Amino acid sequence: MSEARSEQRGLRVRGLRVSTSAGVPVVDGVDLSVPGGTVLGLVGESGSGKTTVGTALLGGTRRGLEIVGGSVLLEGTDLVTLSETELRGWRGSRVTYVPQDPTTALDPAMRVGNQVREVLDCHDYGSGPHDRARRVSEAFEEVGLPTDDAFTRRYPHQLSGGQQQRVCIAVAFATWPALVVLDEPTTGLDVTTQALVLDTVRRLTRQHGCAALYISHDLAVVSAISDEVAVLYAGSVVEQAATDELVRRPRHPYTSRLVAAVPDLSGDRELKGIPGGAPSPSTRPSGCRFAPRCELVVPECTTELPELRLVADGHHARCIRSADVTPAHVRERRRIDEIDSAPLLSIHGLTARYGRTPVLHGLSLDVPRGTCVALLGESGSGKTTLARTIAGLHTDAEGELHFGGNRLPFGAHQRDRETRASIAYIFQNPYSSLNPRRTVGDSIGRPLRVLRGVRGAELERRVGDMLERVYLSAAYAQRYPDQLSGGERQRVAVARALISEPTLLVCDEITSALDVSVQANLVGLIEKFRQDLGLTLLFVTHDIALVRNVAQQVAVLQEGAIVEDASTEQLFHHPSHDYTKELLKTTPRLVS
Fold first, then answer.
1. pLDDT digits over 238-269, tens only?
2. DSSP state, 276?
3. Which of 9, 118, 156, 316 has its CA 20 to 30 A from that of 269?
């Protein structure tokens, strides 16, 4: 593709401003440039304005917001100036969107082939039905899906999560668009499926010569697909550079801390979160918006918002102390010592099923006392079923469980009160694991009241103490879950699990919905409890890079069987099973 055509098909955003109906800026003066055939990664924590920017590029906003300034130039047209009728002609044709959750984006009552065909029909693609049928087949082939009638006539529920997301990508690229906005399209996917989706997006962007904006909170994923990265914080771009340059030599303190919060597959860097949280649009400080959380802050930082200025060739940063920012990955992490202790939990010949469908097949595993053992595997491998069986939440099983040397019944209702108090469970989704009608204090105190018989002033005191230990104040006891952020809800879930003083803590994908900075803080918190209280952890995850930073032992599950069980150092340095090798190979890592 010629340079002139690439520039013509590129995206230029200048001074984009989005405000609430009350005039509070949400996105403030964003400038972005994405040449045709390239991918720009837009990265930042929840609430930074990433999705608001992505939606604005489609010429719209969510309810309660409006575009109040700036321009979005695509193929010589400013999308901000178009009427709603004109925008309908662009959306789905020249400007397309790939959502985070394909299950809500695809029509459950329409066959997947027809969903691609519908876009072509709406925008009058080609010269007739024959051209559109051919383009449907091409679109499925481009994303690596079968093109036969048996597949294209399937409904979304008959496809895997990865296949559903690739159908969404096929819909987005079917009309040969000029701009594709991808809003965290790999969140929740296992690493092998994620790698396939990333490769598909990167290849199609170059093949179609379109501009792509890839939105994510995960800098490792963004660095695996993007040519350049823009870092968004509290509604403003704080740094933008070529991907390799930004990761190796960050020039804004926030970017440096984001790099430190990304799990390190090599194990040579400390996993470190960012204290505090980003300000809401109505509480942003007048100076640098990162100043309240910054280790390099000086009085000048608090007087006015710094300009986004050139700090190196093609590298811009919004920081008056950019020369003093150091790369986060130069810090060495302490290697975790191997622990040799007797098993707290032993599993022998465990088989579990749902009705007639077997999920676990004769599985055996020992969990040494005082260690963190990770259960690693793709979606559908049986990790959560194993965790729920151990916790007494799944009873359709055979085999033997031993806890502390004693036989452990499968059902929680068959276990005595002391055993139930000794095994705690943290669920994956912090938004659904807390009762919205109960206060935080009531939710945290319930296990202590039911399992330990603590009541009255003593219960209230211990709830307050536990809130302080998870870095929330005792005042949070009076709040309700809808008044908390995702990270705060998950810390409340940790407090609820630990207040009964368990011996074994089962963590089921507890970081999958969290920003990497919040994830790092939560992992650090749980590790501190492990060391202080002598907890034994069973850590369920599909994130192999995170495993390297939290576990001493790893059990790898594939299709309901453990295919590899080894110490963390052994597994990462000398994996023995092909499946483990594939997981290591496909896991995104920061450019280094």
1. 999 999 999 999 999 999 999 988 887 877 77
2. S
3. 316
* Predicted pLDDT of residue 331: 47
At 351-380, the pLDDT tens digits run: 999 999 999 999 999 999 999 999 998 888
Closest alpha carbon to 500 in 427, 429, 446, 433: 446
Give the torsion sign (CA, 309, 311, 317, 323).
Answer: negative
566 DSSP β-pair partners: 554
In DSSP notation, 103-164 reads HHHS-TTS-HHHHHHHHHHHTT-SSSHHHHHHHHHHHHHHTT---SHHHHT--GGGS-HHHH
The residues, ordered by sequence, that sit 6+ positions from 105 with a Cβ below 8 Å of its Cβ are 99, 168
Please count the CA atoms within 13 angstroms of the CA of 572 that sit on its side-chain side: 20
Tokens of 47: 């609430």
Secondary structure class of 290 (helix, strand, coil): coil
The pair of three-digit structure tokens given for residue 82, joined into one six-digit string: 């178009």
CB 396 within 8 A of CB 561: no
User: Helix crossing, 486-498 with 440-452: angle to 10°?
Assistant: 20
Residues 6+ apart with CB under 8 A from 353: 359, 360, 396, 397
Q: What span, in angstroms and rounded, lies between the C-alpha atoms of 317 and 246?
A: 10
What H or E segment, with its residue span, contains residue 53?
helix 50-56
In residues, how long is the chain?
A: 592
Question: Quick check: 180 and 213 in contact, CB under 8 A?
Answer: yes
| Local structure of residue 195 (DSSP, 8 states) | H
Question: Cβ neighbours of residue 238 under 8 Å, at least 6 residues apart?
Answer: 231, 232, 252, 254, 255, 290, 308, 317, 318, 319
Q: Which residue has the tokens 């031993």?
A: 402
Is residue 522 pLDDT above 90, yes or no?
no
One-letter amino acid of 427: F
Sheet holding 504-508, edge to edge: 423-426, 504-508, 536-541, 372-376, 553-558, 561-567
φ/ψ bin of 184: left (φ > 0), alpha (ψ from -120 to 50), beta (otherwise): left
pLDDT tens per residue across span 294-324: 999 999 999 999 999 999 999 999 999 999 9
Contact between 336 and 552 (Cβ < 8 Å) = yes
- Cα distances from 283 to residues 25, 67, 254, 291, in angstroms, run 11, 20, 18, 13
> Distance (Å, rounded) from C-alpha 136 to C-alpha 195?
23
Is 292:275 a contact under the CB 8 Å cutoff? no
Q: Which residues contact 233 (CB under 8 A, 6 or more apart)?
A: 44, 45, 48, 254, 278, 289, 290
> What integer pLDDT is reported at residue 265 of this predicted model?
82
> Average model confidence (pLDDT) for the chain?
90
SS3 state of residue 98? strand
For residue 47, the model assigns a pLDDT of: 83
Q: Yes or no: say if 302 and 320 are a contact pair by the CB < 8 Å rule.
A: no
